[in-house]
Amino acid sequence: MSGNTTNLRMHLERHHNIIVKASVKRNAEESTSQLHVKSSEENVEESCAHSSVEPSSSLSKQPKVTKQPKVTTAFDKQMMFKSGSKVSECDQKLMRMIVDCNLPVHIVDKESLRDFIRSLNAHYAPPGRKKMTELIEKKYAYLSAKLKNTLSALDAVSITTDIWTDTLNTQSYLGLSAHFTEDNEFKTAMIGVHALNNSHTSDNIQVWIEEILNEWNLKNTQIMAVIADGAANIKSALKACFGAPKVLHCFAHILNLVVTGAISSESLITDLLKKVKNVVTFFKHSVNAADALKKETPLKLKQSCETRWNSTYYMIQRYLKVHDYVIKILCNTKSAPPVISADEVEILQEMTSLLEPFEYATKLVSDTLYIENLVDRTPFHSEKIDRPTDKSTGGYWTHYKKKAQQTNEQMNPEDVHLNELQHYLMMPTEDFDTCNPLVFWSKYNNSPLGKYAKKLLSVVATSVPCERIFSKAGRILTEDRNRLSPKHFKEFLFLSSIDRDNRDFCNS
After folding, report:
1. Rounded CA gap, 147 and 165, in Å?
2. Exposed end of the chain (fewer CB within 10 Å): N or C?
3. Burial (CB count within 10 angstroms: exposed 0-12, middle 13-18, buried 19+), residue 326
4. CA-based angle 258:261:262, to the nearest 5?
């Protein structure tokens, strides 16, 4: 039999006639069904066309026709992440972004953000506002509990405190931050933000501080020192809580008082600073003068702030850099303030030399990690202040460096039966540029002197860390979040103080 279809068809009709008839019948039924469907579609189209020409009064009574979703949409919905590690990871990263960028929680309900997230991962449905609030509360509970366990195991913790006022809601808050050493690292954590609803008396402040310490399971015996500014009510409350020996005045505030007191005592200096401030104010308010300065230099003039002495230093420093341009512009501008003379410029230059070591010290002690970063700072040389001298004799740490360079081969502390302090004093001095105090004392964890040294290293010099955290508070309590409750504000502020590299933040 040949391979054409005619022979096959004739074979089926002769020997398999029943199968052929059944197949013909089935094809006829399918053709009839398709004809009915096509006729129905034509009737619908005709009806719709007729309705568009002659609208019926009963159109509103017609049942609403729901659009059938596309197959791809149905599949995408089924493939959405419902739960699991991937959903948790995405939720945590989204929460971290909200905390880091000080965004309102309701941003997760914004359709534009949800569209953006869908474009990145079509299978992830971001949580709504309520769910995100719950995630933030759970994260605060998890991390705060972890920190409480860490603090409870420490022998020494130093505390900084400050009071901050939310101007949007006229609400004051008392803040406490804890400072401690762990694994040869200096660490800081915001441990309490208490809404102040009564007058800020020393008795009330004492009660609020004790409430925060109880909440974090911190005992008085663990507190090595408490650092605050010179406000009388705060100092009185701290002395009642911890005893006068543990209360330290913020060193940065002391420097501020010293410098501002010295400046205000000399009328010649105060008058000169007023002239500089007037020049800066003129350029801040005059568009033409500001534009002229922009054409000459990208540097802008800086204005001083009465509460921060170093802002005066920065104002003078910047003015001296652009002095020549400023003089040129002022001489060609009507109604300009009096110019700074050449003699006055010399006085300003001398002032910067005198104020530079104070500025260096302020920046150094205001650094949260100043114990670790101390070795990375270039010492300020005293010849810049007083008179030209040999550089090897200048600087804050000259005595230490000279001692480190001296070697005494006859010194053998291990053979000398002296007390531990004398033993330490006779040890060779460590290299200042490479030694980290925390690492050094970790070698002597079992000795009484080593343990006491580690306690002392937990003490910070200023209350700036607490003030710095409260500066974040101003970016959290904005117009978009002015209805944030004190409870949620505390949670946001705590989470924002957590180190970005802290892996625990992105764990459930």
Report:
1. 26
2. N
3. buried
4. 85
